[in-house]
Design a protein that fits this description.
The complex is a heterodimer of chains A (112) and B (111). Chain A has 112 residues and is mostly beta strands. Helix content of chain A is 0%, strand content 52%. In chain A, strands 2, 4, 5, 6, 9, 10 and 11 form a seven-stranded mixed β-sheet that branches. In chain A, strand 5 and strand 6 form a beta hairpin. In chain A, 34% of the residues are buried. In chain B, the strands form two sheets. Chain B has a five-stranded mixed β-sheet with strand order 1-9-8-3-4, with no helix packed on it. Classes of the chains: A mainly beta (112), B mainly beta (111).
Chain lengths: 112, 111
Amino acid sequence: DAMVIQNPRYQVTQFGKPVTLSCSQTLNHNVMYWYQQKSSQAPKLLFHYYDKDFNNEADTPDNFQSRRPNTSFCFLDIRSPGLGDAAMYLCATSRDGSGEQYFGPGTRLTVT
Amino acid sequence: DAKTTQPPSMDCAEGRAANLPCNHSTISGNEYVYWYRQIHSQGPQYIIHGLKNNETNEMASLIITEDRKSSTLILPHATLRDTAVYYCIVSERGATNKLIFGTGTLLAVQP
């Protein structure tokens, strides 16, 4: 089945130690998104790619970066994780012009 | 900021219809109404969307008022697996369809 895959499902990192979360998709969608969801809050959009074009949300901290080497893969890099970055990170995809986004299961990040 | 208002929580008896309201009084003419749900510890799941006509699919029905200032998501026969947070979102249907999630409604289906 076509899907959005996130690895790992659970990630533990140390304060200040860079971490990378990955997302892959078999849907061949040209738009990919990263959301942050903190405990008991709604998902919050960090940035998205339209094809290779990167679009950052205005309030996304500089500590968060992203890479999209090809259509299928997208990475979220957190350069120096703080305790406040502990959250569920959700990857989603959509097809150009469609209002439907397909979400992965998320990666739960713990910062110790 | 989210452009929708939803009740924080609702209960529904299993097998009965669940009617989830959403207020979007500042919706503009080219904005669609989208509904997503998020079951605990999973990613959000698309349910349905509409512009001004009522819509129905295998999961739910969407009723949009004539003035488009509010809508109702209807789950016709709620099951325990429908327990989730339901998000109502308004968004322009453009190339990238950014979703701004509000606080949503926690629907608890009771046995």
